[in-house]
Amino acid sequence: MRIPVGSDSLKAFPFLTYNESFISYRGGRQPLKHLLQVVVEQHTFLPRDFVGGDSALDFLNTVTGRDQSPRDWLDSYARLIEWAALAKLFPQDVLWRLTKEAKREPAAAMRALTGAKTFREQSFALLANIISGRSPSKDALRLLREQWLAGVSSFELRFEGSRVVKDFSGEVDLDSITRMIGYRIVENVLTSPIERLRMCQGPNCSWLFIDTSKGGRRRWCDMAVCGNAAKSRRFYARTGGLFGDLSS
After folding, report:
1. In terms of domains, do 229 and 189 share one?
2. CB within 8 A of 239, min separation 6: which ones?
3. pTM given for the model
4. Which of 64, 52, 45 is nearest to 202 (CA)?
5. How many other C-beta atoms lie within 10 A of the C-beta of residue 143?
6. Which residue range(s) make up the domain with 72?
7. In sequence order, what E strands does the chain have?
8. What are phi and psi of 201, to 5 degrees?
9. Same domain, yes or no: 39 and 139
10. pLDDT, tens digit, for every residue of 185-235?
């Protein structure tokens, strides 16, 4: 059932509603007064899709255009593995094992993909709230804690030389990608300076990233994409469209 705007359900799950035929978002770069229907589309991931500063944020960015025309790039569990390979989230032999397991258990793979997307949306909402100075929901914190602890259990400790070394245990199942994302959000993203956690200011984007620039003034996910588009719009506005839209 489509959830109406303003319902209590949206307060607990502010960015996403599911039914059998569509996914809808509320929120994004700016508060919206309506639900936006998401298009789940095929997408071949490329290095330019990894601009978040950590693979956990790049995972959250597998939905683009949250504020205007949301597109979900995870159309299958195979696509999730494709993303994880480019993100170097696991060694290749681990991803191969996950690929074989997904082919052997397609229904379980679909459940794992649904769980990954649910966690993605709760985590996006959590970080978006933090960026805007609001408290994240208890549900989002609870789910993040669950995945973080599950991710911690994926590592073993050993003593080598004069220090303790953390090693990936090598034990995986279809939910391992989600657990590793939860681990990285807590260990890598939330330990970064919160004032450097940003949301792209470009329209039809809303990607998250860690600003590692020297001056801390990065506004765009990618200057070559959203940054140049913004410059083109400003130029168009100043010239009254005399020279056309340079972003096209």
Report:
1. no
2. none
3. 0.81
4. 64
5. 19
6. 8-214
7. 17-18, 23-25, 36-40, 63-64, 71-72, 155-160, 163-168, 197-199, 208-210
8. -90, 0
9. yes
10. 999 999 999 999 999 988 889 999 999 998 888 888 886 668 555 555 554
